[in-house]
Write a structure and sequence with these properties.
Helices cover 81% and strands 0% of the residues. By secondary structure, it is an all-alpha fold. The protein is elongated.
Length: 113
Amino acid sequence: MKRGYARHFLKDYQAAIKDYTQAIQIAPKNVTAYIKRGDAQYSLKKYQAAIDDYTKAIRLSPDSVDAYKNRGFVYEKNLQNKQEDKKQRATDKYKKTIYKIQKLQQRKPQSSN
């Protein structure tokens, strides 16, 4: 567990996850290990894995404020990302439509003989 902390501090999140996973295998009810692994997952933008770890921590310890807080933060972050993605897709669609209209307007009508 302490090695996981150290690796997390050094931003070696992948190694930290391995260490926290090992700690969980040794002590499956170690709430802190789930929370810290969730933190490392979040740092790697593995949002669903982070949510899963926080949820497991909550199941093991329903009073864990950190697990609820961190899970809520990840949900909020995911929601913001999804909203931004949706706005970007709408903007891209709008730009493509404008481009197509401009192309159509540039075409000269063909004269009929």
